[in-house]
Amino acid sequence: MVFCWKNYKQMEGSKILIILKDAKLRAKISDILVTGKYLVEFTDNGKKAMELIRNLPIDLIICGMELNGIDGFGVLRMVNKFIDTVSISVVMIVKGDDQYAIRRLMEIGADGFLIGDFDDAELLNQVEARLRKRRLQYEFFLQQQFQQKSPTGMDNGLFWLNAKRQTLVPRIFKKKQIIFYKGEPCTGIYYVLSGKIKTFIADSSGRVLITALYYAGDYFGFQDFTAGSRMSNTAMVVDDAQVVVIPLGIINELIQEHPEVTNFLAKKLARMVHERDEQTLELAHATVRERVSRSIVKLAKKESNVSDNIRLTLPRTDLANVIGIASETLSRILGDFTKEGLIEKDGNDIILKKVERLKNVYS
């Protein structure tokens, strides 16, 4: 099998971290890279740089020797020390023709050098060469993963979707920020990298029903993508989140190259329709007590493994809107559960004390 990925030829959008004490040089390099349509982060502090490297999806590092805190040698050693950062290419800036420093940096694992008064072309050539190498390494890794796993069906579709998603830059959303509104044109499929998202609908009187909650590792927006029209819900951030958007054009390319992606999307949509049907039946037939117990157990299961003393963190208003009841009614039922020793309340958090007994309420 020959592995092919069209977008690996495109370097635009790669995130580059500049670590330099010289503010003037730092600004010059940043301007050149931004003009080249790269995303840029920068700092003059080696310790701060390591925090950024460990917490952001950095594709390339451009690092000077003299820094505040950890120096350039220290940063290079740290990058090559950890398994989650060792694949990041590091280009070191060396003043003059310091052969001793260059030898030391090569021994530690530097991928490239910018020496003395380098020009724009030298900088961009180094950047493009290192990013191309990183993409080729990632391409080879995907090929090996695919050959080892030999996925089929739905797993195969998810494999290719995940592989593509990992090449995209996540967007950062703050609490209560809207990701998309109901009625907006569908632009793609969404993946929660971190945080928590809710989708909801509201009637003309302002009453809200939360249709789903999404946590780290969840995809959402399938039903709107397959409908090929407009968003059927509004999506809002519950907790600060990082979300990856996979554009429609990329998904269509994936479907053409790997038809099994269609199978994955269809099965995912069928599962979501089934969950919506269950939610409708609950609203129509289950008692309020049954709906509350089922919802808090189900949501706790999404946050972590269900066991006694598990903590569910969700604003009361959101929990009420998930269940489809008034906040006052929810408070009354939770008060009953507290008296019965099934739960404890800690601010907005609910601690499930007796999970099996809660399950018996709706079984």
Q: Count of DSSP E strands?
A: 14
Question: Which structural class is indicated by helix and strand composition?
Answer: alpha/beta
Sheet with most strands: 6 strands, antiparallel
Overall pLDDT confidence: 84
How many individual helices?
Answer: 13
Helix content: 40-55%
CATH superfamily of the largest domain: Response regulator
Radius of gyration: 25 Å
| Poorly predicted ranges | 1-10
Subunit organisation of the chains: single chain
Q: Class of the largest domain, according to the CATH hierarchy?
A: Alpha Beta
Can you walk through the features of this model?
Helix 11 (316-323) crosses helix 12 (327-339). Helix 3 links the parallel strand 3 (60-63) and strand 4. With 363 residues, the chain is of the alpha/beta class. The strands form 3 sheets. Strands 6, 7, 8, 9, 10 and 11 form a 6-stranded antiparallel β-sheet that branches. Strands 2-1-3-4-5 form a 5-stranded parallel β-sheet, sandwiched between helices. A 3-stranded antiparallel β-sheet has the order 12-14-13. Helix content is 47%, strand content 22%. It has 3 domains: 6-137, Response regulator (Rossmann fold, 3-Layer(aba) Sandwich), CATH 3.40.50.2300; 162-273, Sandwich (Jelly Rolls), CATH 2.60.120; 286-362, Orthogonal Bundle (Arc Repressor Mutant, subunit A). GO terms for molecular function: DNA binding; DNA-binding transcription factor activity; kinase activity. Residues 168-272 form the Cyclic nucleotide-binding domain. Residues 286-356 form the HTH crp-type domain. This is cAMP-binding domain of CRP or a regulatory subunit of cAMP-dependent protein kinases.
